[in-house]
# Entry
Amino acid sequence: MSRLLLALVLAASPALATPPPTALVIHGGAGVIERSALSAADEKAVRADLDRALDAGQAVLRDGGSALDAVTAAVRVLEESPWFNAGKGAVFNAEGGHELDAAIMEGHTRRAGSVAGVSTVRSPLLLARAVMERSPHVMMAGAGAEKFADQHPDIERVAPDWFDTPQRRQQLERAREREQKQMAALPGTYFGTVGAVALDRHGHIAAATSTGGMTNKRYGRIGDAPVIGSGTWADAGCGVSGTGWGEFYLRTAAAHAVCARVALAGEPLATAAEAVINGEVVALGGDGGAIALDANGKIAMPFNTPGMYRGWVKPDGSRGTAIFRNEK
Ligand code: ASP
# Structure
């Protein structure tokens, strides 16, 4: 049999030509998520939205789509969900408004796009992707990013109060009260940022993160999520999306640090992610979590807060969601 014929036979036979493994991992933020504070109904709703995000990303990967499209699809679902601190349901800043950050990165090309401090863009992630694909830049902020959005009619705009939810307003009020009493900020005044990392059939990795930042944050504060290498990173062998106290992820270049350990020190993904998120970040006084994925489809989801909303689809097709620490 000629080689060509053999190749054709293999391609036509599903039993022989198993497609290369794909994998997906998502987060809906780390923070103080206590079992007692989450009603059964709310927990069900949160898990349903995590599942919908997994469905969206998994469908792309199953159809042979790119990791980039898979993380975009998964994060879009989470941005639209009021349960997470990204898009609808983003936290309030100190002025009672919203300034949203997002980033996306494709590993094998190292293309990246990000936006910071936008307030009328329904999906900051889609705008970050537009920066990557339709501008010569990597990062755009504030009024400039909004102007860039003006030039792309497919980027949907909303009134700034579209992002409001009563729960987030309550969080802001509590944060302000504590500030007035000169008490320390509540732990977990962040949480709910969303992210996804995917490995596609071509062995390519992409990562994406979208967030409202931290409750009661000050003018112009930019967190780690849109900073390439801090909250979001992908290279040929590894991808990471972080969630937590952004200042510490910035100071440790956390997402890049995880993948650098994998690439340069040859550490297994889980060891690298553990060392950065539960080691370096904590040693400086920060907290939070991250999701990470390598080119073999290995997944790591370290966090040091009481909970982290998360979901995964492994290369063998098994999938799940979890919220609390003691869940598998
Ligand atoms: N890391 C985000 C920030 O600092 C917040 C979060 O993950 O919830 O902006």
In short: The chain has nine helices and twelve strands. The chain has one domain: 22-317+319-323. The two ends are 49 Å apart (CA to CA).
